[in-house]
Amino acid sequence: xxxxxxxxxxxxxxxxxxxxxxxxxxxxxxxxxxxxxxxxxxxxxxxxxxxxxxxxxxxxxxxxxxxxxxxxxxxxxxxxxxxxxxxxxxxxxxxxxxxxxxxxxxxxxxxxxxxxxxxxxxxxxxxxxxxxxxxxxxxxxxxxxxxxxxxxxxxxxxxxxxxxxxxxxxxxxxxxxxxxxxxxxxxxxxxxxxxxxxxxxxxxxxxxxxxxxxxxxxxxxxxx
Amino acid sequence: xxxxxxxxxxxxxxxxxxxxxxxxxxxxxxxxxxxxxxxxxxxxxxxxxxxxxxxxxxxxxxxxxxxxxxxxxxxxxxxxxxxxxxxxxxxxxxxxxxxxxxxxxxxxxxxxxxxxxxxxxxxxxxxxxxxxxxxxxxxxxxxxxxxxxxxxxxxxxxxxxxxxxxxxxxxxxxxxxxxxxxxxxxxxxxxxxxxxxxxxxxxxxxxxxxxxxxxxxxxxxxxxxxxxxxxxxxxxxxxxxxxxxxxxxxxxxxxxxxxxxxxxxxxxxxxxxxxxxxxxxxxxxxxxxxxxxxxxxxxxxxxxxxxxxxxxxxxxxxxxxxxxxxxxxxxxxxxxxxxxxxxxxxxxxxxxxxxxxxxxxxxxxxxxxxxxxxxxxxxxxxxxxxxxxxxxxxxxxxxxxxxxxxxxxxxxxxxxxxxxxxxxxxxxxxxxxxxxxxxxxxxxxxxxxxxxxxxxxxxxxxxxxxxxxxxxxxxxxxxxxxxx
Lengths: 224, 484
What we know:
The complex is a heterodimer.
Chain A lengths: L1 H26 L2 E4 L12 E5 L4 E9 L5 E7 L8 E7 L2 E7 L7 E6 L7 E9 L5 E6 L8 E4 L2 E3 L2 E2 L2 E8 L5 H8 L8 H32 L1
Antiparallel strand pairs in A: 1-13, 2-9, 3-8, 3-10, 4-7, 4-9, 4-13, 5-6, 5-8, 9-12, 10-11
Chain B lengths: L1 H10 L2 H20 L8 H13 L20 H9 L2 H4 L11 H14 L18 H12 L5 H10 L2 H19 L3 H12 L2 H7 L5 H21 L3 H15 L9 H16 L4 H27 L5 H15 L16 H11 L10 H24 L1 H6 L1 H27 L16 H11 L8 H28 L1
């Protein structure tokens, strides 16, 4: 009898964990990050100044198939915003956008785009098309990535911060294919491994726990 | 050989085999989910292994941090941490684990440019203050995969901790079996609590000496229990001595094992010889008192710099008291009173990933605080109600208490020295408690052992899946940290 109680209790507990925890977690919609060529710094803010007409370009960046909205942060030195140009060059994938001077000092400015079909190496440029200088928020501390920023061809130390997100919201469940590719990067194997582990984790592990409880209750019964 | 394998397979109980498989799957999942170089001090531990193998030396700095020598990992590891964005990501919530194939291409270009010798010069790193047990354990897989790229080597070293995880799970099974007897449901419950503990699996799924320290402590606890409850055999004694030496050669946190092992040996000797006569008993009493006094002096000497510095000793005592209990009126000092038993035993143990990359919801931590109090109370009630049984195992109980208290004192001494030394790091943290996870598992089993036979499977199922749910909650928190 005890073993059947163990089986029923184990299956019920597994079901409760699945329905109350796993399903809501995987289906919860979030704004998911895409490529992040340069994150915000950790220890102190730096800037890449852009005088009128100047352009800052970051090499060694990557954009991927989920990079739909680019975010940069711009300071205007307490003056009005200046029109900005934005350009991504990644082989035959080219994006060119403009942003009007409608933003304020220290605002995050976004550019939406159709993403590349595949992840690519890219050069990302931001230009000041106004008449007054602006500052691109940047990182010059440990968080500086491999990106190389040049302003009008001249190398500068800080990289301007830029991150890409998806345009809408999505759940981890819906995006697991992309996440699996990310989890396969800088690890051996391939995207199949995160998939296999997810199936084992969410399917085989609860099953193993239920069987272990069932079998141990059966052993206890037999020992009585 | 085949017949022997078949025998081993037949003698391994199915629940244990399944729980070992669970531990392996969870470990593989964490080894894959955690970005490269993200584990606690993972760069330093990897660098220790790399220098041991590549430079064919054991860089154990026994006299502390050397002056005037260069610091840092190899050029290969340094470049790899930059190219994989690990440096940008460390402690930085705005950086995620979003690398894709072109990021690997960038790395391959750098790897070619820096050349093969880039891995052959590692300088001093703080992990090299530890004894060389862990790098020696990891040396063979590193050497076997030294031709692979550095990320593959790192992943292999992470996976090489799986045998240690299996050792902990098996130790939990055996230890609980010794405590509760042939009651499989309780054994399964205790072992499942260990196998699904998120702090244990996350910590041991990165390249970190904690994995070996935890395995050695766990095996030692099971061996001490076997010696005290079943009697010493040559194999048990040799194994316990070997494990103790290995623990001491792995980490400073392995050293406190000497005391409970010595006590186990003394008790076993006492039982074996049954010394008669008042002189022998007085001598034994004096030796015990001397050991306690010597231990206290060593603790005070290590903590305060002098064995008999009353002010420092009082300050250390005050710090220790305030870590666990509210401050008393006459206490003058406030040393990191923001860091207390709740932070270490609840928050950092149950719900915060080792490198602070992800924390479960605060309500879960509050629930775990309540559950821990209830569990402790249930355990005490059971121990009191079954005092006759407990009395029969009092020697083991004494040894386990000595083991846990000694370990905590060593941690607190390190924490106190760090605080008064100006570093401010309280040192004591949740992942440092995992060497005693086998005790937690057994305590949970003992706490519910009084339940009727038909109720026990239900409670066991609830507890096992609560532990698994907690594991998933931590995994989810880390997913949000790196992918959300």
